[in-house]
Model the fold of this input.
Amino acid sequence: MAQKVTWEEIGQKGFNNISPAYKSNGHIFTAGNVGLDPVTNELPEDVEQQTINALENLKNLLEKSGSSLDRVMKVLLFISDRASGPIVNKVYAKYFPHSPARTCVMVQFPDEAFKVELEAIAEYDE
Done:
């Protein structure tokens, strides 16, 4: 049976109507992680820092849920501007040297200040 991961469990501010993740059958399925600063909950202007923050938020979520970045099997990445691709890829490569499967989609976020969002599927030990 699927187990909900709560914002309280991972120690992050979240959204009432969105769960940060669900765990089921040895896998964690995360919601989208954006570039909000994990301490201040503020959004930096530049895509590099937003990417770092999003990946740090994902790392925290996975570690508090019994997994880690090196157990990520699939990433779905959303970016708002094609020109930011090389910057995002440079940061991404530092966090995922094992190169999990990935899809990258260019989108228009409801709030134009957001430049990157990512979700992941990772393994964990039940």
About this structure: The chain has one domain: 3-123. Helices lie at 7-10, 47-64, 85-95. The two ends are 12 Å apart (CA to CA). The longest strand covers residues 72-79.
